[in-house]
Structures are given as C-alpha cells and as structure tokens.
Write a structure and sequence with these properties.
It is found in: Cytoplasm, Cytoskeleton, Spindle pole. With 544 residues, the protein is mainly alpha-helical. It has 3 domains: 150 residues, no CATH class; 188 residues, P-loop containing nucleotide triphosphate hydrolases (Rossmann fold); 103 residues, Helicase, Ruva Protein, domain 3 (Orthogonal Bundle). The protein has 19 helices and 7 strands. The strands form 2 sheets. A 5-stranded parallel sheet has the order 4-5-6-3-7, sandwiched between helices. Helix 1 crosses helix 6, helix 11 runs parallel beside helix 12 and helix 14 crosses helix 15.
C-alpha cells in the first residue's frame, strides 16, 4: 500500500507538471505567432522550454482552445464566460500580500469577481511590469522564428513576478490529493494502481496505464520555475548567472552503466531518491543526509556518480565549478554563494555538485598567500552549508575531490558522509572490458582478452581502462586507414603526395580485434592513477 500511495503521489505531480508545461508551450507558440518575440524569448529562458524541442500539436493553439471553451460555456449556460476584468484598487492591495503555496504551485490570494463558469484569472503582471510596458512597446505582429537566439538578452532585470516566490515544501507536492486517491483505491479493490521504479520506468507493464509516459525524457519536458525576486537588481543578475549552471541536458548515465561502487550508489539513493519519494520517514533524527564527499584517485568514477544523480534522481541539478562562484569584483563571490543556495532551496528538491572542491575549500590560514576575498568566500560557503542542516527543503550537496587531505576541517565536518571511491577490482575490470570490447572482438577471443587485460591492469582506474580499450579498438581501424591511403601505409614522400585514396563504398569494414592487438596496447598504455597516493587515501579513510 505504501508503494501504491507513493506511485499515486508521483502520478499526481507528473500530471500537474504536464499541465503547466502544456499551458506554457501553447502560450509560447501564441506569442511567436503574434509577433511578441522578446516576451517569448524571455519566457523560454525562464521556463527552460524551447519550441525547437517541443511544440504545440497540429491544429492546436491557444486561440482555438479559448474559442472552444467559450462555445462550450455558451451552449451549457446560455452565455459566454467573462475571461478578463478591470483591475480595481483593492486588487492592487491584495497583490502586495505574500504568495502562498497551493496544490497547483504558488498563487496570489485575491478576491475573485468572476462567475463560476469563467476561467480563473491568472495574475502575471505587477506594477513594475505595467511601468515597463510604457518604456518597451510591443513588437509588431507577424511571423517570427522561435529558434532565433540573436536577440539581445537583458541580464539583471526582474523576473516576471515582482513578488518573492515562496520556497516549496520538502516533499514538493501537496499530500491531500494523493491521500484521497489512495483511500479510494483501498476502498475499491478494482482500482488499478501503477507502480513506477526509481528511474521512472513503468513496472506494471500494462498498456494504457496512467503512467505509460513515465519513460519519456525528463530533460526534454523539464519546466523550470521562474526566477524569484532576490531583493535587488544586482542579486537578480547574479541569480541569472547561477541559473545557467542548472543541468538541462540529459547526461544519459544510468546507475547500471556504472560498474561496481555499490556502497556509493546505495548511499546516494538513500540521500537523494528515498527522501523525495518517502518524506514521511525522513524526519527528526532520520533526516536525510545533507552533504556527501566523494574522494579517490582520478578517473575512478566520482563525476560519473554525479552524472547518474542528474540522470536518475529527478532533482534540479546545479553543476558548479570554481569559475561560477569566484569573481574578481570585491564581495561578489560571497553574494554568488548566497544566491546559489537560495536558488537551490527555491528549486528544491535540488542537488549542488561541487567538483574539485579542494580548489574552493582548502584549509584556511594555510600560508601567507591566501587572499582575504578567498577567506570570505570560504566563510560564506561554510555558513550556507551549515544552514542546510536546519533547512526543511531537500537540498543535497555533493562534493568530489582527488585530494581530501587538503580540505578544511570545518568542510569535512559539514559533509556528513565521506566515501572512498576505490580503484576497480579484478571482477569490475573484467566487466568493463567485456562491455567496451564486445562490439569489436569475436566471442571466442573475448574471454581470453578479458582475463589478460584484467590481470595486467591492476592499479588502473576506470578511465585508464577505457583509454586502453580505445587504443585496442583503434588498431584494426589504423590498418584500414593504411589500406585506404594505398601502398600499405608506405610513409615515403611520394606516397604522402599522391595517395591512392579509396572511396567510401570501396572500403571494407574494420577487422576484429586480435590478441596481438591487446598485447601491443598493453605495452604502450600506462595508468594515470596515483600509485604513490594510495596510502594517503587509506589514511584519510581510516581517520574520517
């Protein structure tokens, strides 16, 4: 029953998300068709939608939808609905009240003077935008290209709503509707419930299920919330810069594609996925982990784990680097850090990934070369990380480093879980080699090559093994390229000046990889992992 209730919660949220996305797509198409290009491009930037990825269906547009709704209301009630009204002074007072969060997202509490047969009035303008309309006249009507990105972007301006947008609840959805649905399902045994897996796949395999579209690409249908009011135009501009680091493209790294690292994957699912799906269990002492540190030799899969979170966990993923939050202007670095965590709370559930965190949070007071601005930025980062522990929003900080002993002790304390990402073992190396060389090698030679490579690559990282397999797969292609250039790869000056180049249709496919190719590649490929740092990693692991 608990699993079914969780499935209903996900379905209700997915349906509301799809409705909001459909409305915005219809509005975008209407704005472009009517010639409001600047407004449409601003809406695309704030929502994360693009008409080059998703567009209105054939014969579907906003004008037709409103016309059919008016005709339906006229047939049913004998009169057309009133869709808009004049704004009174009392409404301006009501708009100054703080927004509240309802089951369908943030909205403004306001008195409604429209009949029940009318559409709800969507308030998307404020006094600020009414003043802007006098300074920025509308673009002339006509056809416009929705893919045009050459128009001037106005950074630092206020968002579409002039009120401070509220931060959503920890669960991100209202619990009232799912509870009612689950109760109805309990009372009626004939009700069919569809269960969804962690990755969003339909586990019931039932045609026509309400969750049959759960396997759609989440990133193509992603809808970003509009920018909140951060208090000043300067902070708005900084927020726009941070917002560009939200991962909108699909990294396409599922959990199954990562070989080994079971402990790290289980802990990340426990820290990110489970609190989002079952928030009723993660309270009090069982509050979810707020920070995890991944450390180990280069190329062992720390960044791959972060990409898997971005792919699988359905959270807003902030991919932050040093260039994002380090500024040459005095005081801007601290403001960028503050805005980053404010946006993470606003877009909760969210994940902040800090790669190479030792470059940002090394030990304070380490020598006279540390600048004052660096100390201030570190202090602000520590304050914001400490605030995550008291925050009810689901904001998760994931940090990765190759040199954990360089981190400040206060940072290590705030990153509650510290996971050593080790070099792959013998079995993991065999699985990696099999996955990568299977398309290039015959089935009869592959087991021998697996054993040969796995034994010879002790101390190699996953990245080193990938480079080795690439070198092995390149050898048949090199032989083919020599054949394509003629003279069997003769490197004489005459051969390079007048090669007998074969056409594409004349080239045979590259031959399979041989054991000789494997032996030659093993002789020329060396690992990049730090053999002399193994003791330091183990010492750090034993201490922390």
């Amino acid at each position: 029953m608990l699993r079914h209730r969780s499935a209903l919660v996900e379905w209700e949220e997915k349906r509301r998300q799809e409705q909001r996305r459909n409305i915005l797509v219809l509005v975008l198409r209407h704005l472009f068709d009517e010639g409001y290009v600047e407004a449409a491009e601003r809406l695309q930037a704030e929502s994360g939608l693009s008409l080059s990825k998703i567009d209105a269906a054939d014969n579907v547009n906003l004008s037709t939808a409103i016309q059919e709704y008016e005709e339906y209301q006229e047939i049913k009630y004998g009169r057309r609905p009133k869709l808009v009204r004049k704004v009174a002074q009392t409404d301006l007072v009501e708009r100054s009240r703080p927004a509240v969060v309802g089951p369908h997202g943030p909205h403004q509490p306001k008195p409604c003077a429209i009949s029940q047969s009318s559409l709800p009035l969507q308030e998307d303008q404020t006094n600020h935008h009414q003043n802007e309309s006098h300074n920025h006249p509308r673009t002339g009507r006509g056809q416009a290209n929705p893919n045009n990105t050459n128009s001037k972007q106005k950074g630092g301006g206020r968002a579409s709503n002039n009120l401070k947008a509220p931060v959503s609840e920890a669960s991100g959805v209202s619990n009232q509707a799912p509870k009612d649905s689950a109760a109805q399902a309990t009372e009626n045994p004939n009700t069919k419930l569809c269960v969804v897996g962690v990755g969003g796949a339909n586990l019931d395999n039932t045609k026509g299920s309400v969750l049959s579209t759960a396997d759609e690409d989440l990133f193509d249908l992603r809808l970003l919330k509009p920018m909140p009011d951060l208090g000043s135009a300067e902070l708005q501009e900084l927020g726009t810069m941070i917002r560009k680091d939200i991962y909108l493209e699909n990294p396409n790294v599922p959990w199954d594609s990562i070989v080994g690292l079971d402990q790290a994957k289980e802990l990340l699912v426990e820290a990110v996925v489970m609190p989002h799906r079952y928030p009723q269990f993660f309270k009090g002492l069982l509050a979810p982990w707020k920070g995890v540190l991944l450390y180990g030799a280069p190329g062992t899969g720390k960044t791959m784990l972060a990409k898997a979170i971005a792919t699988e966990c359905k959270t807003t993923f902030f991919n932050i680097s040093a260039s994002t939050i380090v500024s040459k202007w005095r005081g801007d670095s601290e403001k960028l850090v503050r805005v980053l965590f404010d946006l993470a709370r606003y877009h909760a559930p969210s994940t902040i990934f800090l790669d190479e965190v030792d470059a940002l949070l090394s030990q304070r007071g380490d020598g006279p070369t540390e600048h004052e601005s660096s100390r201030r930025m570190k202090t602000e980062l520590l304050i914001q990380m400490d605030g995550l522990a008291q925050s009810p929003q689901l904001v998760f900080l994931l940090a990765a480093t190759n040199m954990p002993w360089e981190l400040d002790f206060a940072v290590i304390r705030r990153l509650e879980k510290r996971i050593l990402v080790p070099l792959p073992g013998l079995n993991e190396r065999k699985v990696m080699v099999k996955r990568m060389l299977l398309p290039f090698m015959g089935a009869e030679l592959l087991p021998k090559a697996e054993e040969m490579i796995a034994v010879a690559t002790d101390g190699y990282s996953g990245s080193d093994i990938q480079q080795l397999c690439k070198e092995i797969a390149m050898r048949p292609l090199r032989r083919l390229m020599k054949l394509a250039l003629g003279n069997e790869g003769d490197e004489s000056q005459t051969s390079r000046k007048n090669p007998q180049v074969l056409q594409k249709e004349e080239l045979p496919p590259p031959g399979p990889v041989t054991l000789e190719d494997v032996e030659q590649a093993l002789l020329t490929s060396k690992p990049a992992a730090w053999h002399n740092k193994g003791e330091l990693y183990q010492k750090f692991h034993d201490r922390w």
